[in-house]
Specification:
It is built from ten helices and three strands, in the order βααβαααβααααα. The protein is mainly α. The protein has a single domain (about 15-295), classed as Rhodopsin 7-helix transmembrane proteins (Rhopdopsin 7-helix transmembrane proteins), CATH 1.20.1070.10.
């Protein structure tokens, strides 16, 4: 089916974001829920970034990647949550065409970048455990910067492709997006264009993003497990595994919530919105907690900061 409306997409100046459907008397409670969780996202990730930047002991590749992970978590949550909170209390619930494009671009950018940064962190743990004597040589500062820059480049390219095919469609059927942010799937539903190309681009992008990152993570941990099992002392094995447990927790949380979002049946949009809340709010909230609660260096750095504050007071 061809475009029914020709270039009607150029006439659309804004969209309406339906948001999460709740009874009107629960809007204030939903706003408060978003506010509290978002505040915890800000507090946790800004604290993690501050500790990593200020503590010289955390000037290592692992914490360089962790600091970037906190920036990414903070960023994609900020791209969506403040606007969603405004719309909860607003009657109009609109977002401009340019704002929708920017939101989808930045959301896709940070989501893809996070997947590649987590793969880089897996490679870092592989070198640290399997080749500890060569760790400082292999994981140089320049390589770490290149890996993070490459992650952002992959995110940028995939986002450009995603918004190019998404917003080249005609929106003559409706401008009401059944979601609380601009995502490609609900946007496709209000288009009167043929979405086959969009589906194929999205599928190929997903394969090109998920396959290499998962392969790097799985292969890295296969080598890590093989190396750790060769360690004779139980204390040595425990110490080696403890350096990876936090990363594995974050990887499981990310891929678990993303799978929940995109494997939820399209026929149940409200469940998909709940799944999106898990990814956009709970994942960036829990990531700093996972690393701070299970990482001795981070806990020591936090105690140091608290102790300094007590001394100043």
């Amino acid at each position: 089916m061809g475009d029914k409306g020709g270039d009607n997409h150029s006439e659309v100046t804004d969209f309406i974001l339906v948001g999460i459907r709740v009874r009107p008397e629960l809007h204030s409670l939903l706003f408060l829920f978003f506010l509290i969780i978002y505040w915890m996202v800000l507090l946790g990730n800004l604290s993690m970034i501050g500790i990593i930047v200020t503590d010289p002991r955390l000037n290592t590749p692992m914490y360089f990647f962790l600091g970037n992970l906190s920036i990414i978590d903070l960023s994609y949550s900020t791209v969506i949550v403040p606007k969603a909170m405004v719309n909860i209390l607003s009657q109009k619930k609109t977002i401009s065409f340019a704002g929708c494009v920017a939101q989808l671009f930045l959301y896709a950018l940070f989501m893809v970048t996070e997947a590649f940064v987590l793969a880089a962190m897996a490679y870092d743990r592989f070198i640290a455990i399997c080749n500890p004597l060569l760790y400082t040589v292999r994981m140089s500062r320049s390589l770490c910067i290149q890996l993070v820059a490459g992650s952002y480049l992959c995110g940028w390219v995939s986002s450009i492709l995603q918004i190019s095919v998404t917003f080249s469609m005609s929106f003559c059927a409706s401008r009401v997006i059944d979601h609380f942010y601009c995502d490609s799937n609900p946007i496709e539903k209000i288009s009167c264009s043929n979405v086959f190309i969009n589906k194929m681009v999205s599928l190929n992008l997903a394969i090109l993003i998920i396959l290499p990152t998962i392969v790097v993570i799985v292969v890295s941990y296969m080598y890590i497990v093989s190396t750790v099992l060769k360690i004779r002392s139980s204390e040595g094995r425990k110490k080696a595994f403890s350096t990876c447990s936090s990363h594995l927790g974050v990887v499981s949380l990310l891929y678990g919530t993303v799978s929940f979002v995109y494997l939820t049946p399209p026929s149940n949009p409200e469940l998909r919105k709940v799944a999106s809340v898990c990814y956009i709010l709970f994942t960036p909230m829990l990531n700093p907690l996972i690393y701070s609660l299970r990482n001795k260096d981070v806990k020591d750095a936090m105690r140091k900061v608290v102790w300094k504050k007590k001394v100043l007071l």
